[in-house]
Design goal:
Keywords: DNA-binding, Phosphoprotein, Transcription, Transcription regulation. The structure is a single chain. By secondary structure, the chain is of the alpha/beta class. The chain is built from ten helices and five strands, in the order E-H-E-H-E-H-E-H-E-H-H-H-H-H-H. The protein has a five-stranded parallel sheet, sandwiched between helices.
Protein backbone atom coordinates (compact mmCIF):
# COMPACT_ATOMS: atom_id res chain seq x y z
CA UNK A 1 0.00 0.00 0.00
CA UNK A 2 1.34 3.43 -1.00
CA UNK A 3 0.90 5.89 1.87
CA UNK A 4 0.29 9.48 0.72
CA UNK A 5 0.31 12.78 2.61
CA UNK A 6 -1.50 15.80 1.09
CA UNK A 7 -0.30 19.29 2.06
CA UNK A 8 -2.06 22.28 0.48
CA UNK A 9 -3.74 25.38 1.87
CA UNK A 10 -6.75 24.87 -0.40
CA UNK A 11 -9.18 22.39 1.25
CA UNK A 12 -11.14 21.92 -1.97
CA UNK A 13 -8.06 20.81 -3.89
CA UNK A 14 -7.00 18.48 -1.07
CA UNK A 15 -10.46 16.99 -1.02
CA UNK A 16 -10.48 16.41 -4.76
CA UNK A 17 -7.06 14.75 -4.71
CA UNK A 18 -8.03 12.62 -1.72
CA UNK A 19 -11.27 11.43 -3.32
CA UNK A 20 -9.34 10.36 -6.41
CA UNK A 21 -6.47 8.67 -4.59
CA UNK A 22 -8.70 6.83 -2.11
CA UNK A 23 -10.48 5.07 -4.97
CA UNK A 24 -7.30 3.12 -5.73
CA UNK A 25 -6.72 -0.25 -4.06
CA UNK A 26 -2.97 0.34 -3.71
CA UNK A 27 -3.02 3.97 -2.46
CA UNK A 28 -4.05 5.33 0.94
CA UNK A 29 -4.14 9.00 1.98
CA UNK A 30 -2.89 8.88 5.58
CA UNK A 31 -3.24 12.58 6.45
CA UNK A 32 -3.85 16.13 5.18
CA UNK A 33 -2.19 19.40 6.15
CA UNK A 34 -2.85 23.05 5.35
CA UNK A 35 0.66 24.49 5.54
CA UNK A 36 4.29 23.39 5.43
CA UNK A 37 4.82 23.32 9.19
CA UNK A 38 1.78 21.08 9.66
CA UNK A 39 2.93 18.94 6.73
CA UNK A 40 6.36 18.46 8.29
CA UNK A 41 4.81 17.39 11.59
CA UNK A 42 2.47 14.99 9.78
CA UNK A 43 5.41 13.52 7.85
CA UNK A 44 7.13 12.71 11.13
CA UNK A 45 3.94 11.26 12.58
CA UNK A 46 2.80 9.12 9.64
CA UNK A 47 6.00 8.44 7.62
CA UNK A 48 4.25 8.48 4.22
CA UNK A 49 5.82 7.05 1.09
CA UNK A 50 4.86 10.13 -0.94
CA UNK A 51 4.18 13.67 0.26
CA UNK A 52 2.31 15.88 -2.23
CA UNK A 53 3.20 19.40 -1.09
CA UNK A 54 2.00 22.74 -2.44
CA UNK A 55 4.89 25.05 -3.25
CA UNK A 56 3.29 28.27 -1.96
CA UNK A 57 1.68 28.11 1.48
CA UNK A 58 1.46 30.18 4.65
CA UNK A 59 3.62 29.56 7.76
CA UNK A 60 6.15 27.39 5.90
CA UNK A 61 6.29 27.12 2.11
CA UNK A 62 6.85 23.96 0.11
CA UNK A 63 10.51 24.71 -0.58
CA UNK A 64 11.48 24.98 3.09
CA UNK A 65 9.23 22.03 4.02
CA UNK A 66 11.00 19.95 1.36
CA UNK A 67 14.41 21.04 2.63
CA UNK A 68 13.57 20.02 6.19
CA UNK A 69 12.08 16.68 5.15
CA UNK A 70 15.14 15.80 3.06
CA UNK A 71 17.49 16.84 5.88
CA UNK A 72 15.77 14.60 8.47
CA UNK A 73 17.26 11.05 8.48
CA UNK A 74 14.05 9.74 10.01
CA UNK A 75 12.19 10.84 6.86
CA UNK A 76 14.58 9.31 4.33
CA UNK A 77 11.81 7.15 2.86
CA UNK A 78 9.53 10.12 2.11
CA UNK A 79 9.44 11.21 -1.52
CA UNK A 80 8.35 14.82 -1.89
CA UNK A 81 6.39 15.78 -4.99
CA UNK A 82 5.76 19.51 -5.37
CA UNK A 83 2.33 20.80 -6.44
CA UNK A 84 2.24 24.04 -8.41
CA UNK A 85 -0.13 26.14 -10.48
CA UNK A 86 2.63 27.57 -12.60
CA UNK A 87 4.71 24.82 -14.17
CA UNK A 88 8.50 25.07 -14.22
CA UNK A 89 9.30 28.37 -12.51
CA UNK A 90 11.95 29.64 -10.09
CA UNK A 91 10.09 28.22 -7.09
CA UNK A 92 9.95 24.73 -8.60
CA UNK A 93 13.64 24.93 -9.49
CA UNK A 94 14.47 25.79 -5.87
CA UNK A 95 12.32 22.90 -4.64
CA UNK A 96 14.14 20.45 -6.90
CA UNK A 97 17.45 21.75 -5.59
CA UNK A 98 16.10 21.26 -2.06
CA UNK A 99 15.52 17.57 -2.82
CA UNK A 100 12.02 17.19 -4.27
CA UNK A 101 11.60 14.11 -6.46
CA UNK A 102 9.66 16.11 -9.04
CA UNK A 103 6.64 18.30 -9.47
CA UNK A 104 3.06 18.19 -10.72
CA UNK A 105 0.88 20.99 -12.08
CA UNK A 106 -2.40 21.09 -10.18
CA UNK A 107 -4.56 20.75 -13.28
CA UNK A 108 -3.01 17.33 -13.98
CA UNK A 109 -5.42 14.74 -15.38
CA UNK A 110 -6.42 11.99 -12.91
CA UNK A 111 -4.58 9.19 -14.73
CA UNK A 112 -1.32 11.13 -14.66
CA UNK A 113 -1.71 11.93 -10.97
CA UNK A 114 -2.12 8.26 -10.10
CA UNK A 115 0.80 7.27 -12.32
CA UNK A 116 2.99 9.97 -10.77
CA UNK A 117 2.25 8.85 -7.21
CA UNK A 118 3.22 5.29 -8.12
CA UNK A 119 6.39 6.42 -9.89
CA UNK A 120 7.45 8.50 -6.90
CA UNK A 121 6.70 5.64 -4.50
CA UNK A 122 9.02 3.38 -6.49
CA UNK A 123 11.82 5.85 -5.86
CA UNK A 124 11.98 7.18 -9.41
CA UNK A 125 12.14 10.90 -10.18
CA UNK A 126 9.21 12.66 -11.81
CA UNK A 127 11.54 14.36 -14.24
CA UNK A 128 10.87 13.86 -17.91
CA UNK A 129 13.63 14.73 -20.41
CA UNK A 130 11.75 17.92 -21.34
CA UNK A 131 11.95 19.06 -17.71
CA UNK A 132 15.63 18.11 -17.55
CA UNK A 133 16.20 20.42 -20.51
CA UNK A 134 14.44 23.24 -18.66
CA UNK A 135 16.81 22.70 -15.77
CA UNK A 136 19.68 22.95 -18.24
CA UNK A 137 18.21 26.15 -19.68
CA UNK A 138 18.14 27.57 -16.16
CA UNK A 139 21.87 26.91 -15.85
CA UNK A 140 22.53 28.52 -19.20
CA UNK A 141 20.74 31.64 -17.99
CA UNK A 142 22.16 31.55 -14.45
CA UNK A 143 25.30 29.37 -14.40
CA UNK A 144 26.31 28.25 -10.91
CA UNK A 145 29.64 28.83 -9.27
CA UNK A 146 32.29 26.25 -9.90
CA UNK A 147 31.92 23.11 -7.79
CA UNK A 148 34.65 21.08 -6.25
CA UNK A 149 33.78 17.89 -8.11
CA UNK A 150 33.49 15.97 -4.84
CA UNK A 151 32.52 12.36 -5.47
CA UNK A 152 33.24 12.36 -9.21
CA UNK A 153 36.44 10.41 -8.67
CA UNK A 154 34.30 7.51 -7.44
CA UNK A 155 32.55 7.17 -10.80
CA UNK A 156 33.68 4.75 -13.47
CA UNK A 157 34.21 6.09 -16.97
CA UNK A 158 30.89 4.61 -18.10
CA UNK A 159 29.05 6.06 -15.11
CA UNK A 160 30.50 9.50 -15.84
CA UNK A 161 29.38 9.17 -19.44
CA UNK A 162 25.87 8.24 -18.30
CA UNK A 163 25.74 11.23 -15.94
CA UNK A 164 26.74 13.59 -18.75
CA UNK A 165 23.95 12.20 -20.93
CA UNK A 166 21.40 12.51 -18.12
CA UNK A 167 22.46 16.12 -17.67
CA UNK A 168 21.93 16.72 -21.39
CA UNK A 169 18.32 15.62 -21.05
CA UNK A 170 18.46 12.06 -22.40
CA UNK A 171 16.16 9.32 -21.15
CA UNK A 172 17.51 5.90 -20.17
CA UNK A 173 16.52 4.47 -23.54
CA UNK A 174 18.34 7.28 -25.34
CA UNK A 175 21.39 6.81 -23.10
CA UNK A 176 21.36 3.10 -23.98
CA UNK A 177 21.30 3.92 -27.69
CA UNK A 178 24.12 6.45 -27.36
CA UNK A 179 26.33 4.13 -25.25
CA UNK A 180 25.38 1.00 -27.25
CA UNK A 181 24.19 -0.86 -24.17
CA UNK A 182 20.86 -2.23 -22.95
CA UNK A 183 18.35 0.07 -21.25
CA UNK A 184 18.75 -1.96 -18.06
CA UNK A 185 22.52 -1.42 -18.09
CA UNK A 186 21.98 2.29 -18.71
CA UNK A 187 19.65 2.45 -15.73
CA UNK A 188 22.23 0.61 -13.63
CA UNK A 189 24.95 3.13 -14.55
CA UNK A 190 22.64 6.01 -13.66
CA UNK A 191 21.55 4.44 -10.37
CA UNK A 192 25.11 3.68 -9.32
CA UNK A 193 26.15 7.24 -10.12
CA UNK A 194 23.27 8.57 -8.00
CA UNK A 195 24.39 6.35 -5.11
CA UNK A 196 28.03 7.42 -5.34
CA UNK A 197 27.14 11.11 -5.61
CA UNK A 198 24.47 10.89 -2.90
CA UNK A 199 21.85 12.16 -5.35
CA UNK A 200 18.30 11.34 -4.33
CA UNK A 201 17.08 11.17 -7.91
CA UNK A 202 17.61 12.31 -11.49
CA UNK A 203 16.90 15.96 -10.72
CA UNK A 204 19.63 16.04 -8.11
CA UNK A 205 21.98 14.22 -10.49
CA UNK A 206 21.51 16.89 -13.17
CA UNK A 207 22.15 19.67 -10.67
CA UNK A 208 25.25 17.94 -9.27
CA UNK A 209 26.61 17.39 -12.78
CA UNK A 210 26.53 21.12 -13.44
CA UNK A 211 27.61 22.26 -10.00
CA UNK A 212 30.61 19.89 -10.03
CA UNK A 213 31.74 21.10 -13.45
CA UNK A 214 31.34 17.68 -15.05
CA UNK A 215 28.95 19.33 -17.51
CA UNK A 216 28.84 22.98 -18.53
CA UNK A 217 26.06 24.84 -20.36
CA UNK A 218 28.07 24.58 -23.58
CA UNK A 219 28.55 20.84 -23.12
CA UNK A 220 31.53 18.87 -21.92
Amino acid sequence: MIRVLLVDDQPLLRGGFRALLDLEDDIEVVAEGGDGAEGLALCREHLPDVALIDIRMPVLDGIEATRRIVADPALARVRVVILTNYGMDEYVFKALRAGAAGFLVKDIVPEDLLHSVRVAARGDALLAPSITRKLIDRYVAHPPGGGNGSGLEELTAREREAVVLVARGLSNDQIADRMVISPMTAKTHVNRAMTKLYARDRAQLVILAYESGLVTPRGS
